[in-house]
Amino acid sequence: MSAVSLGYYPGCSGLGTSLEYDASTRAVCRALGITLQDIPDWTCCGSTPAHTVDHVLSSALAARNFAQAETAGIDDVITPCPSCLKNLRNALEHMEDDLFRARVDALTERPLTRPHTVKSVLQVLVEDIGLDAIKEKVTRPLTGMKVVPYYGCLMTRPASTMRFDSPEYPMSMDNLLAALGAEVLPFPLKVECCGASFGIPKKEAVTRLSGKLLDLAAGLGAHAVVVACPLCQMNLDLRQEQINAANNTHHALPVPYFTQLVGYALGVPEKELGFDKLIMPLAPAFTAMQEACAKATAVAEKKPAAGKTEATAGGAA
Amino acid sequence: MRIGVFICHCGSNIGGTVDCKSVAEESYAFPDVVFSTDTMYACSEPGQQGIIDAIKEHNLSGVVVASCTPRMHEPTFRRAVERAGLNRYMFEMANIREHVSWIGKNKDANTNKAAELVRMAVSKLRLNRDLHSKSFPVTKRVLVIGGGVAGIQAALDCADAGLDVVLVEREPSIGGKMSKLDKTFPTVDCSSCILGPRMVDVAQHPNITLYAAAEVESVSGYVGNFEVTVRKKATYVDWDKCTGCGLCTEKCPSKKSFDRFNEGVGPTTAIIIPFPQAIPKKASITRDACRQFTKGKCGVCAKICPTGAINYEQQDELVSMKVGGIVAATGYDLMDWTVYEEYGAGRYPDVITSLQYERLLSASGPTGGHVKRPSDGKEPKNVVFIQCVGSRDVSIGRPYCSGFCCMYTAKQAILTKDHIPDSQSFVFYMDIRSPGKGYDEFTRRVQEEYGAQYIRGRVSLIYPKGDKLIVRGVDTLMGGQQVDVEADLVVLAVGGEATQGSPQLAEKLRISYDSYGFFMEGHPKLKPVETNTAGVFLAGSCQGLKDIPSSVAQGSAAAAKAIGLLSKDMLASDPQIAQVDMKRCVGCGKCIQVCPFKAIKEVDVRGQIKAEVIETVCQGCGLCNATCPQGAVQLSHFTDNQILAEVEALCRF
Amino acid sequence: METIDLTRPDTAFIREVEKESGQTVSKCYQCGNCSAGCPMSFAYDIPVSRMMRLVQAGQKEAVLSAKSLWMCATCETCTQRCPNNIDVAKVMDVCRHMARREGKGGVYAVKTFWDAFMQSVGMNGKVHEIGLMVMYMLRTGRVFTDVDLAPKALPKGKMSILPHRAKGRKEVADILRRFHEGAADEQKVQARLAAAEQAGKQAATQEGGRS
Q1: How far C143 CA sits from the closest chain B CA (Å)?
Q2: CA–CA distance from B437 to each of B187, B442, B446, B552, B631 (Å)?
């Protein structure tokens, strides 16, 4: 694995509600030898609200960031947030049309001079770094932790824009978590909408939709719901008690970012991964994991030979 | 030469946007034209008579008709000029409908173009020569490819008419998709009870030779005299010795083989007789599943077989034969529905195909006709049927309606209630298409008498929750209302597609196929069972998806065409074939290399190598003509000079 | 229910939706798959398949007044599963854009939230989550919205009271200002492009003349 250098767009929530996503992304990239260069003085990507106003406007807000990237000599950008990714990608795609590009330029007054690419952190880990390379570096496997991966609706959609994994049943995060040693449960609603940004203006959207996700994840016996989107994380974690109150449920499911678990497995110190920033504490998931591990070892000791090697393989790796 | 020109109005089809009268007048200016007129319908009885009268009155030696595509009416007009005493090849057709009036709106430009096309036709006609057909004997044997209900019908009809029939079936038994069905619509009668006797008839008919577990390897030759090679695939059982007792299938230790006949509902053994009514009732070994082949040791079936029929050394065998006509009846397959990720793409065991459900319903199926869902063997109570899975879906490249799913879904909903009286069926549909006799009444009965819930709308998502499947759909008749069904079993009415290998077979038969692999009929209305290759006919779903009554009707229709063709002892050959000018030929052999029909051979003419066309094999494609560096090979009726005369007529400025 | 006069559809509206979205609305055969999969349908006044039907019928007022436009989460499920490859989400998008241009109020809470979001972006260059919340609460009067979350989020240091202001915030504000001044209007930009092309041609001819 050669050293990789990429431009980095953290996204606004990385400064607030998803501090831990930003921190763990940086830590994981460091551990994997990816050098991140922040886009200097980046600004809002356009995101959902601008998108609801006008496509040229949202693309112009995105384009300013590419113009900033150019000042630092950055062409290829990654971002952890799928919403930012979609908007940045959409802008590049739309600007292939000359008239659209001219309209964007009329707003930014800073025409772009070079071609750019944007990828998600997940895509870079899975496609560019590769699962085998990550697996090799695992020092603290997640053996025994039952997780459901929840991608959210934006990570792979629309397929023609995102061009990554399946828009209906993606597997990249499943495979990544499995490479860390976790027991990945098949989660049929892994791309169903969580209620998105309606948490504030229409709370019922979140209590209903995210509630359904939590119900199903709990029903499957998951120790954690692993996410890749700040908005999903906020809905499932910060609003979990609101959801419980609205639906008369008693979920206490931790909702870590996949980068936090990758970082843990790679041996990154926990304080760099922002575990303490999660509202629903992650500790019970680790406890459950250790219990499961201990149980497996106990069973293995009763039945020596084949069973034993299997149970301890994760620990030794 | 004395040429007559006839400009057809085709009602308003041509006359609407072409000034036919002025084209006719202009034609008088073309060389050798002594008579020219316009006519309302040249192909009608008075229209043809007008041509015949003009030939006689004006002593014409050649005729040009400017009208529609020659595909339909060139034979009509050739017969007309023949009736007037001319050679049928002293006739040319200019297509001023498809090439002019239907594609252009500007009348002046159209009229001008029509006149240009007539000028070209006249220029070519001036170089036409009388051509004469030769006659050759036909082989009174028919090859039927595919032993489904359409192929069975075609084979029996041909055999009953006294023709020899060779029936080739890819699977180890005939019967096709119909043999997998439990009941048939709209009468709900037992499928194998009505098909079984027909299958037995095939086995017992003295005129029918059946090759099951066999495929057509190659086809050469031409109408009346095709040379066909059939590959009999190794079944590792000597079928001459096998009595179909089934002992081997009972004792076979490899019991996890994919059961093709039962659509994978439950496993089967490595040596199988596909189903109790199989014809031929012979055993065959699935090589990939057999321990003798995969592990190199077992031999249980060989030990147990009372007649010593097992032969692990058996090889494929090629059989060649001559046939006069061919009926393609290769049927259809279900499309691969696992492209639908939102329906689980095969991850959920209780989401099954309609054909799998037939096997669950069938008394001869793996559950003995008790509906047990695959995951846990429980009897389902809420059964959801989803129509148009893989039909009418542009996003996966299947825009067409499969035609039979509405009806079989209604039938399955009825059978569900019959099998499980306390069950409830839910049918998600987009439109109910039931135009057959008694069909619409049937789809009403399932709702009115059997209480099936019909919901107009597609299903967006299926996901498991506990031991149920949540089916998230919509009721568009309630204005786009989202609906959920907690289902125990989901049956997908999967659409059909051309059977695997259809394009390859079409190429062997030299017939056309559409972008979905369905074989093309000669004319969508007037030649529904013929193809553009003489002597090759179509029956059943290989031409386009259809239900059992239509497949049987087409089987009989294709048989009628084959019987008609082979009722003659001699056929006339097409004289529009290549000819070699021996003086010009330098024996380079390029024509032999390009000929797709192997119709040119080398001959020794006084010590020199020359090319020679085998007249009965040549199909007149003209590749040799275009390839010959010496211009020695010329395609009769399309010689270089004739083509160049047309080009010159067009480029005279 | 009022009778709709089908003989007088608003064809200009249909054309405008088709042009802005790049979609052919007549491709919709009303299977309802978009409505079936729509996670926000429970909050819609008109399900998305019916929105498509209303666009097909040129029912501009009904479409642009629909609350549904404002409740769409842009999750793209409708687009993803449309059997006719229609980008349904994009049709919803452009209808919402048109509704905004026509001054439709939309769903007050949603529109206010989005407007507050854009204002926060305009002020800081980035979104300041606390500032956005305060702005939203002040405008809607929903002062108790999510107050239960504050004691959870604040101690985590996730909500900084002061915004992270970008140096380029003026640039962002300029983009928004130019947008509202109509600098990106299609006709205007098109005319400018044409003029530039003309000038380029003239320059080239002059150049050619000189050499």
Answers
A1: 33
A2: 11, 10, 16, 15, 60
Q: Pick from B335, B474, B483 the residue to mutate for testing the C interface (most C CBs within 10 Å).
A: B474
Residue A210 phi, psi (nearest 5):
-70, -35
Q: How far is CA C49 from CA A159, B416, B478, B479, C211, in A?
A: 21, 32, 12, 8, 63
Verify whether the Cβ–Cβ distance C152 to A279 is below 8 Å: yes
The strand order across the sheet containing A146-150 reads: A183-184, A146-150, A224-227
Subunit contact B342:A219, Cβ cutoff 8 A: no
In order, the DSSP letters of B105-133 are: --HHHHHHHHHHHHHHHHHHHTT------
CA dist A64 to A58, A83, B118, C24, Å?
Answer: 10, 17, 65, 32
Tell me, yes or no, whether C5 lies in a domain: no
Is the domain of A98 the same as that of A241?
no
Q: Which residues pair with B489 in a beta bridge?
A: B383
Residues of B in contact with C34 (CB under 8 A): 460
pLDDT digits (tens, 9 = 90+) for B142-167: 999 999 999 999 999 999 999 999 99
Q: Does residue C3 lie within any of the structural domains?
A: no
Q: Where are the alpha helices (DSSP H) in B174-213?
A: 191-204
Q: Side chain identity at C69, as an amino acid letter?
A: L
Q: Are residues A143 and A291 in the same domain?
A: yes
Same domain, yes or no, for C127 and C156? yes
Structural domain that includes position A155: 139-295
Domain shared by A60 and A207, yes or no: no
pLDDT at C197 over 90: no
CA of A59: which chain C residue's CA is closest?
C175
Q: What's the CATH code of the domain at A260?
A: 3.40.50.11810
pLDDT digits (tens, 9 = 90+) for C163-195: 888 888 999 999 999 999 999 988 889 988 888
Q: Does some domain include residue A127? A: no
Domain-located, residue A105: yes
Domain that residue B18 falls in: 3-125
Tokens of B250: 């009972």
Inter-axis angle of helices C88-101 and C11-21, nearest 10: 120
Q: Which of B43, B33, B31 is nearest to B2 (CA)?
A: B33
Which tokens is B413 given?
Answer: 């909903």
Tell me, yes or no, whether B413 and B347 share the same domain. Answer: yes
Q: What angle do CA A295, A301, A304 make, to 5 degrees?
A: 135
ipTM of the shown complex: 0.88
Same domain, B254 and B217: no
Burial class (CB in 10 A: 0-12, 13-18, 19+), B135: exposed
Positive or negative, the CA dihedral B157, B159, B162, B164 is positive
pLDDT band at A304 (very low <50, low <70, confident <90, very high): low
Number of domains in chain C: 3
C136 to chain A: which residues are within 8 Å by CB?
A: 200-201
For residue A308, pLDDT beyond 50: no
Contact B324, B141 (CB under 8 A): yes
CA–CA separation, A174 and A146 (whole Å): 11
Beta strands in B291-353 (DSSP E): 317-323, 325-328, 332-334, 351-353
State both tokens at A94.
């739309």
Which of A169, A174, A184 should we substitute to test contact with B (largest number of B Cβ atoms within 10 Å)? A169
Indicate the pLDDT class of residue C126, thresholds 50, 70 and 90. Answer: confident
Residues 465-484 of B with CB under 8 A from A: 465-466
B341 touches chain A (CB under 8 A): yes
Q: Are residues C90 and C124 in the same domain?
A: no
DSSP string over A58-80: HHHHHHHHHHHHHHTT--EEEES
- The gap between the terminal CA atoms of chain B, to the nearest Å, is 25
The CATH number of the domain holding residue A15 is 1.20.1050.140
In a domain, A160, yes or no: yes
Tell me: do B185 and B225 sit in the same domain. Answer: yes
